[in-house]
Write a structure and sequence with these properties.
Low-confidence stretches: 20-31, 35-68
Number of helices: 6
Strand order of the largest sheet: 5-4-3-2-1-6
Largest sheet: 6 strands, mixed
Helix content: 25-40%
Strand content: 5-15%
Radius of gyration: 40 Å
Structural class: alpha+beta
Distance between the termini: 133 Å
Number of strands: 6
């Protein structure tokens, strides 16, 4: 009787011990399960795999201008802001880029738009006229706004036509100035144009 009890106890003890020693393990995944997990990861990428936004890289091939960096400022630091302005405006708007001179004429407010026509209206503000040394080079007449934009007046370097044209004709020119944002331009070309500048007295 004692032997039976001891055998029962040993059997129970072995069963309990065997059950405790084998901790539950994850069943090996089948190939189908692995495929499902990979598919799930592709559909729901984690935030760690999100692309890094490179906000400082503004270079492009579509003509976007890069912001002025320290090196650019140092390259142009030996030139005045006026010289840089004239060169940038001509580079952007000049009818002919192959010029021998870049002549700068300051025209005060109150000056007739067309001095050869006694019916001409006058400039309501100080303007600047940029022109090459030849008539074919064309000209740009503008006023600055101090915020990187200019008002461009549609006036020729030399007036041709029948006079008197009438004050309304010139008033329309004043009313229809074109607002233009001045671009930075390439420093090498800016410097080339600055070297051609001649300010008229």
């Amino acid at each position: 009787m004692k032997k039976v009890s001891i055998l029962v106890l040993i059997t129970v003890f072995l069963l309990i011990f065997t059950g405790c020693s084998h901790s539950p393990q994850t069943a090996p995944s089948s190939p189908d399960t692995d495929k499902e997990e990979e598919s799930s990861n592709e559909d729901n990428p984690s935030s760690e795999e999100s692309p890094v936004i490179q906000s400082e890289d503004t270079s492009s091939e579509n003509g976007e201008v890069k912001p002025v960096d320290k090196e650019d400022k140092e390259i142009l630091s030996s030139y005045s802001s006026e010289q840089i302005e004239y060169a940038r405006i001509w580079l952007q708007l000049g009818p002919n880029q192959e010029i021998e001179e870049l002549n700068v004429l300051h025209i005060p407010a109150g000056t007739p738009i067309n001095p050869d026509d006694n019916t001409s209206a006058v400039y309501p503000e100080n303007v600047i006229q940029l022109a090459g040394s030849r008539l074919v080079d064309g000209s740009i007449t503008y006023s600055g706004n101090g915020d990187g934009t200019i008002n461009v007046y549609n006036v020729p370097l030399r007036w041709d036509g029948n006079y008197p044209a009438g004050e309304d004709f010139y008033t329309d020119i004043i009313k229809n100035t074109k607002l233009v944002s001045v671009e930075l331009g390439a420093n090498e070309r800016i410097i080339e144009l600055i070297k051609l500048i001649k300010v008229q007295p």
